[in-house]
Amino acid sequence: MAENEHEVTPEASTPLSEQENGSRDVWFFVAHRDGKLEEACLKLAMEARKLADKLGGEALAVIIGKQVKHLPGNLGDYGTDKAVVVEDQHLEVYSGEAYVDVLAQLVESSRPSILLIAASTIGNDLAPRLTARLKASLVTRYTEIEVDKEGKVTARRAVHGGNAQATVRALRKPLIATIDTQLLGLQKAKEAKNTRIAEAKIRIDPKTGITRVIDYLKADPCAVCVSEAEIVIGIGKGLGSVENLAAVDELAHVLGASIGGSRRATDEHWVADERRIGMTGKTISPSLYLICGISGAFHHTLSIKESQLKVVVNTDPNAPIAKMADLMIVGDMQKVIPELTKQLREIVRPTR
Amino acid sequence: MRTVVCVKQVPDSTTVKFDILTDSLQNVHYIMDPIDEVTVSEAIKIREKAGGEVTAITLGPPRTEEVLRSCLKMGVDRAIHLYDEAFDNLDAYSTSSILARQIAKLQYDLILCGNQSMDEGNGFVGAGIAESLNLPLITAVTRIDIFADTNTAVVHRRLKGGDREIVETPLPAVFTAETVLTSPVYPRLRTILDGLKKNVTRVDAQSSNLDIEDIEPALALLSISQPKPRLKKTATIDSSLSPAERMKLIMSGGVQQKSSKAVAKPPDAAASEIVQFLIDNGIISREM
Ligand SMILES: Cc1cc2nc3c(=O)[nH]c(=O)nc-3n(C[C@H](O)[C@H](O)[C@H](O)COP(=O)(O)OP(=O)(O)OC[C@H]3O[C@@H](n4cnc5c(N)ncnc54)[C@H](O)[C@@H]3O)c2cc1C
Ligand SMILES: Nc1ncnc2c1ncn2[C@@H]1O[C@H](COP(=O)(O)O)[C@@H](O)[C@H]1O
Questions:
Q1: Which helix (H) or strand (E) holds B62?
Q2: A102: how many CB neighbours lie within 10 A of its CB?
Q3: Is B138's pLDDT higher than 70?
Q4: Which of A61, A62, A65 is nearest to A34 (CA)?
Q5: Which of A276, A334, B66, B89 has its CA 20 to 30 A from that of A100?
Q6: What part of A 135-154 touches B (C-beta under 8 Å)?
Q7: Where are the domains of chain A?
Q8: What is the CATH number that goes with domain A231-345?
Q9: Which ligand is nearest to the CA of B88?
Q10: Domains and CATH numbers, chain B
Q11: Residue from A153, A130, A173 nearest A29 by CA
């Protein structure tokens, strides 16, 4: 692997003793889509900055793809010291096998302390592969990482379905850690950095791939099972009558949402049984759960905890569901829903 | 088709609670991890179509033999129990290397694991086995079609929002399964009775030629404790808040006070409020 740096390689100036142990740097893996950085990356950049400060090292982005040199753009605002870029036409789309080959070589040559990866579909595939290849330590979906005076790294994560928390120490280097970036807010670094770009040349064998992607099936977001949906609209008794379903359906199409319901809604046959959410139904974990006319009985709320954002529309400000709301709208769903559909039609499109 | 299924016994996480008084987990009911019920069922369905045999394997203390008994009753052909005192409290890394060593001694075309165990959810063991045995790995599998004549498989992988990627792989390979892969098999009485007669093969460190010194964990478990309130957003503590309010925010782990935004407005204003909230949170974006 030859690195042709635009600047002096920091690794070269690191004392030998440090090199043997690897560096104190914190790396993060940058996912991109349609030639743009995903917001999740900026959050990882923030997190990497924070940990690099604790360790006394640098925050470093790793970007892999076909044409990605321009991507580090505003990472400096989030405190990224350096971006290592690997470009190759065979790396245009994510492939676990190819990306692990590239990342393993990069990590082995510089040996960072920590490598952060977003717990996304790609990250959940990449992190365990890379850990296995590098014989590294892995912590998935951490909630906290701490560094002690000697630079020893411990991490916390939820276990037993969120009923307990485990604290673990990384015994190897690097610690590969995945995080649910939706849990992080976005905030620029106090001190912006001028991100240095280093291009790493890695030989890519186009034949590494043993497995072969032969097709891609795009799901209809409105038809998809509620447990897999990114946006779910939940309806309950507050719907009032079957006539009001059409308006909910329209909203679902504008938002790209899957419709689910409370037991009341399934009992009334407004919503198919397989779309019931709750103890005797499905568990959901969407980015957005829009909860309309559901009171919030624990049989229902039990299964919606993993929803990232909960928006409630209910005529009763004291309905139990209000306690869980990120945004509580006190109002009549039968009036709010058509209005919401109208406004959404005018100005927005779903991000996914 | 010779399938090896890795199964794990776990405390049922729908009932288990962390108790602060005793500083330990309470209400621990051990069950077979639901995801492994799925993989065992899938292995049996594959055998029904393509023939062959199914081997279930677990690593854990004596009580975990129970899950292998369940597997036998479901209709698996063989069950292997890796147990040794030296295997107590292993991390996922060591677990995967010991499982891999044992699997290496078997004949196999397909190795099935769960994508994530119910208790620890490391999402690692499948990848660890694949790397140790130098096999192709496909994660988040929701459907498996085996082509015995070409010794290949075509599988669906779960992506975001219900999308699927379809991947072809030569066998043998390791797949980590999602719960939607298949529905459980309900064995016939005959299968259950046959299962009762079968034996579980016990393998310890010595009989698997394993030098305990070779087990080098990657993680040390320091403690299990009470869960922290889930961090919703990084708290940017608002300086306009009173010290008491700020303290409350910090104590709650930065969780923004819920229902702080109760909006009672006419429908159009209420809808605008929702639209703005969705934009602010990156759910939708304004058309350029
Ligand atoms: C063993 C068992 C298992 C169960 N399993 C499930 C389960 O899996 N899932 C499930 O959901 N339930 C389940 N239930 C039922 C559960 O206990 C509740 O009865 C049910 O969730 C209530 O449904 P709801 O919120 O739609 O109706 P209600 O409790 O009747 O609430 C209706 C809500 O709509 C509001 N409302 C009324 N009109 C309007 C309007 N015009 N606009 C906006 N809001 C309005 C009201 O203020 C109220 O909050 C189970 C019950 C049992 C005993
Ligand atoms: N002790 C074990 N014995 C057998 N299989 C295991 C064990 N631990 C994990 N596995 C397998 O690996 C999968 C993923 O586990 P984990 O890496 O802990 O998320 C599980 O669903 C099992 O299939």
A1: none
A2: 21
A3: yes
A4: A65
A5: B89
A6: 135-141, 143, 154
A7: 2-199, 231-345
A8: 3.40.50.1220
A9: 2
A10: 2-214 (3.40.50.620), 243-280 (no CATH)
A11: A130
Cα separation, A197 vs A86, whole angstroms? 11
Taking the CA of B121 as reference, the closest ligand is: 2
Q: Report chain B's mean pLDDT, rounded to a whole number.
A: 88
What residue ranges in B96-191 does DSSP mark as E strands? 110-114, 137-147, 152-158, 164-170, 173-177
Rounded Cα–Cα distance for residues A286 and A309 (Å): 8
ipTM exceeding the 0.95 mark: no
Fold (topology level) of A2-199: Rossmann fold (3.40.50)
Beta strands, E only, A303-350: 309-314, 327-330, 348-350
Question: Which residue ranges have their beta carbon within 6 Å of ligand 1?
Answer: A 236-238, 240, 262-265, 276-281, 293-295, 297, 299-300, 313-316, 319, 332-334
Which of B9, B132, B283 to mutate against chain A (most A CBs within 10 Å)?
Answer: B283
- A208 has a chain B CB within 8 A of its CB: no
- Inform me whether the pLDDT recorded for B250 exceeds 70: no
- Give per-residue pLDDT as tens, B176-221: 999 889 988 899 999 999 999 999 999 999 888 888 777 889 999 9
CA of residue B127 to ligand 2 center, whole Å: 10
> pLDDT tens, A44-81?
999 999 999 999 999 999 999 999 988 887 899 999 99
Contacts of B31 in chain A (CB under 8 A): none
Closest Cβ opposite residue A39 in set B173, B218, B282: B282
What is the per-residue pLDDT across A25-38, written as a single tens digit (0 to 9) for each?
999 999 887 788 88
Give CA angle at A66 (A62, A69), nearest 5°: 55
pLDDT score of B229: 64
* Domains A2-199 and A231-345 in one fold: yes
Cis peptide before A174 (omega within 30 of 0): yes
Residues in chain A: 352
B278:A348 CB<8 A: yes
Q: Atom 23 (ligand 2): residue with closest C-alpha?
A: B113
Which atom of ligand 2 has the smallest separation from the CA of B129? 12
